[in-house]
UniProtKB/TrEMBL annotation, chain A:
Organism of derivation: Ohtaekwangia kribbensis
Protein name: 3-oxoacyl-ACP synthase
Family annotation (SUPFAM superfamilies): Thiolase-like (SSF53901)
Cross-referenced InterPro entries: Thiolase-like
Domain of life from the UniProt record: Bacteria
From TrEMBL, chain B:
Descriptive protein name: Phosphopantetheine-binding protein
Domain (Carrier) ranges: 1-83
UniProt xrefs under Pfam families: PP-binding (PF00550)
Length: 199, 85
């Protein structure tokens, strides 16, 4: 099992394999996300309806799979293991405020952290096992152990895993693609390597 | 009626976050769901809220939803027929 690709979004900058791909620090987080969407031009209008957590996950996955395809695998052979610290609290708070004056079903549907998993699965036609952990901070040991367990299933060929956290303007995203075949950057899937890549 | 449809198009774009569209991109008779504008069931709920908040119009029978929300024109006609002065 090898890590084939990585993406990161931090301080309104997007990195692919550790190299800066897009940056705009002079605007709000929302405008940064829209600008990054325009830059990547994925032609996926549903992006505009997503909450910040889903937008961050969507953008990070677009960049992650820029050179690394998962199309060769059956939808059921690709899994998703995500984690964060704030669950969906960023949207929960906004929904709580909005609900004082009006109701918004479109906002309400994002008041669960694993909705970002669903958005990524729909976009990339992933139908494998998916899991979302909530922990105080990035837990390389947890990801190593759990993703290895998922990858040991004979039916699973690849897994997108990592950390997608957002609360107000704070955001921290690190995703990686792990495959059974040696491809891309081909790094070992260990807690030590994940800790280095996450930094 | 023309002004009402123009207002509705702006409000629909705003309420449903259809930022890739401009009011002139939405035809009066264009289907809003399915192969038309591609709206989904959550959008339908947002449209119900929009009618209640902006026009004080409620939909009493949910089964009427598909015909009311068929197009901007059908929504405007429903508002005209059900809005109290």
């Amino acid at each position: 099992m090898f890590i084939s690709a990585t993406s990161k979004i931090r301080k309104q900058a997007i990195y692919h394999q550790g190299t800066l791909a897009f940056e705009n620090t002079s605007v709000s987080l929302d405008d940064f996300l829209t600008g990054a969407y325009d830059y990547l031009s994925p032609e996926y209008p549903k992006f505009y309806k997503m909450d910040r957590l889903a937008k961050l996950g969507f953008l990070a996955t677009e960049v992650l799979l820029r050179d690394a395809s998962i199309k060769q695998y059956a939808p059921e052979a690709v899994s998703l293991v995500l984690s964060n610290a704030h669950a969906s609290l960023d949207t929960d708070v906004r929904y709580h405020e909005a609900a004082k004056t009006s109701s918004s079903p479109a906002l309400f549907v994002y008041t669960l952290p694993n909705i970002v998993s669903g958005e990524i699965c729909i976009r990339h036609k992933i139908k494998g096992e998916n899991t979302f952990f909530v922990s105080p901070s990035f837990d390389a040991g947890l990801l190593e152990a759990y993703v290895n367990q998922v990858m040991q299933q004979p039916s699973v060929q690849a897994c997108i895993a990592g950390w997608i956290d957002v609360m107000d303007s704070h955001h921290d995203v690190f995703l990686y693609l792990i495959e059974k075949e040696k491809r891309g950057i081909a790094l070992p899937h260990t807690a030590e390597e994940l800790t280095k890549l996450y930094r | 009626m023309e002004q009402l449809m123009a207002d509705l198009k702006k409000q629909i774009i705003e309420a449903l976050n259809l930022k890739h569209l401009k009011p002139e991109n939405i035809g009066d008779d264009q289907p809003l769901f399915g192969d038309g504008l591609g709206l989904d069931s959550i959008d339908a709920l947002e449209l119900i809220v929009l009618l209640q908040q902006n026009y004080k119009v409620k939909i009493d029978n949910p089964q009427d939803g598909p015909s009311i929300f068929r197009s901007v024109k059908s929504i405007a006609e429903y508002i005209r027929a059900n809005q109290t002065a």
